[in-house]
Amino acid sequence: MDLAMGAMGSLNKLSEVIKEEYKLQKGVKKKVKSFSAELDIMRAALGKVAEVPRDQLDEQVKLWADDVRELSYDMEDVVDSLLVRVEGSDPNADQFNFKKLMAKMLNVFKKGKARREISTAVEEIHERLQDVTRRHERYNLANLPAAKRTTTDPFWEVFYGDKKNIIGLQKARDDIIKKISDGDPVSKAHLKILSVVGFGGLGKTTLAREVYDSLPTKFGYKAFVSVSRNPDMKKVLSNLLFKLDKEKHASMNAANLDVEQLIILARELLSKKRYFIIIDDLWDKEACKTIRLALVDNGCGSIIITTTRHDDVSKICSSYKDDMIHKMEPLSDNHSQILFYRRIFGSEVCPPRFQQVSKKILKKCVGVPLAIISLASYLANNERTNQIDQWYVLLNSIGRGLKKGDDHVKKMKRILSLSFYDLPSYLKTCFLYLSIFPEDHQISRDRLIRRWISEAFIQVEDETASLLELGDSYFNQLVNRNMIIPINMHVDGRVEACCVHDIMLDLICELSSEVNFVTVLDVIKGDAALKENFRRLSIQKSMTDLTTTQMGTTSMSQAELSRAINKTRCPASRRWFHRH
Questions:
Q1: Could you tell me which residue ranges the Disease resistance protein winged helix domain spans (predicted)?
Q2: Least buried of 209, 248, 249, 430, by fewest C-beta within 10 Å?
Q3: Which residues contact residue 522 at a Cβ distance below 8 angstroms, ignoring those fewer than 6 apart?
């Protein structure tokens, strides 16, 4: 869980304001300097927190990060209130005009009342900031542990279990075997590298394992090696050497060898024999390039298969470009039903009374095997299998709050969250923002980018690119990482809109709620009352159905402090805002 979400943007904005403020208030220059330095320390600490999944964080660290996040929100309110005073300026206007705004602010500070109000607010925040800084030192947050490496792909453990029951991958397996086996004698002698790419949970590892076990041709060496996120390349290469030749490398002390020496050993070993190697779960180009150096083209017809979630990684981890990239596809409706029913009932037959609800559940899984097997495992519990009301409870929770306590759902979310934690911090914020949209919602590319800009999520490092160009880059990166589903593609390949997979939406809604980033109010699903202080409110379905309990004591004075109020499918929203 990224506890820093929502705070980083606030800290960046406030830090810039404070640095400019040196010119405006000489009397508080010393305090402001201290303020700015502490902000930089917090920003660095939050950056570390953001890289570590929630279940790996100490409870004290979580509480500290929560306080910092709420403090950063209050900071942002103070800064934006100040900017709004400057001739009605939009606090999220083009960041390149920032210095012009700061010049105008000089006039505001000359007004006694405004100066006193802002001074009081800054003083209160400064006291709170000193408190969280003291706790930062007390909890030794500067030495946070790095995120643990995933040494094996957990998907292989969760998926089918029994390899005899592989469903829906036979054709893909046969197509890959044909592709890496075909060719004339000359082309067969060259090294072939095929990459399997797709969204987490589609079965890339399972498919690669199927090809690995099914390819009938004999090889001098075979190895299946997992890389995973945050790899230790010395361990990866040592593991590769051990699997290629256990006898020769069983006693090898990799600690005494560096990466370059391990690459040389691998090249020497593979120089004269045909080999077949699977490099599973690659996350970045540098890891791919390093491993590729160890795998020599020996002219013996060797084969390498890589798996990855990222399109750009697949392009450099394959030969002949697109021809040797296998894009994973979701399971068909028929295969989805077979997988789902077998896990719950032990056969492909579904009792008539469960057919309608099961089809609705499968529609939300959109053919992703991980989602299908995880939800089926949840329903396979003896207490739930024959209770149709439990099936509908599950159906209504998909996309907005799957059962947190179920082990199968936890495993699924842990696997999907790997892609989230691999995002750079600026993309995490932008991706988390998608939780403001309802399930099955078509999100306009241009509208989304403008919203990111208005929220100050776009980080401007220099003036060579505009905010819109940077927003385009952010959007394309999410598509490339298979985090969002591209729709409405033009003939030139430009994606005009996107949507979020329901299962992934459920994950980011959970993350958003925990850090008070987006609050969703869905009347149909009976959401509880609003939090006292919400930052972004997404109101879904009809507002005429909102109850007093759900709205609690919410008033427009509270809503004024929110960063965004998103109304979807709300024909009565104008009347509600008029009344409040």
A1: 436-508
A2: 248
A3: 400, 438, 540, 541
262's enclosing H/E stretch is: helix 259-269
Note the pLDDT tens digit of each residue in 181-199: 877 666 778 889 999 999 8
CA distance 515 to 432: 11
The CATH number of 155-327 is which of 3.40.50.10610, 3.40.50.300, 3.60.15.10, 3.10.20.30? 3.40.50.300
CA nearest to 506, candidates 383, 394, 428, 355 = 394
Contacts of 322 (CB under 8 A, 6+ apart): none
Stretch 165-184: mean pLDDT:
85
Phi, psi of 325, rounded to the nearest 5 degrees: -115, 120
Q: pLDDT, tens digit, for every residue of 314-368?
A: 988 887 666 789 999 999 999 999 999 998 988 889 999 999 999 999 988 889 8
Look at 454 and 252; give whichever has higher pLDDT.
454
Instruction: Give the angle subtended at the CA of 497 by the CAs of 493 and 499, to the nearest 5°.
Output: 120
**CA gap 118, 73 in Å, rounded:** 16
The 8-class DSSP code of residue 172 comes to H
Neighbours of 39 (CB within 10 A): 21
| Tokens 């802002």 found at | 118
As a residue count, the chain comes to 580
What is the reported pLDDT for 564?
Answer: 58
CA dist 28 and 21 (Å) reads: 9
Residue 537, strand partner residues? 519, 565
Q: 150 pLDDT band (50/70/90 cuts)?
A: very low
Q: How do the domains of the chain map onto residue ranges?
A: 7-143, 155-327, 333-398, 518-580
CB 269 within 8 A of CB 263: no
Give the global pTM: 0.70
Q: How far apart are CA 425 and CA 117, in angstroms?
A: 33
Confidence (pLDDT) at 266: 92
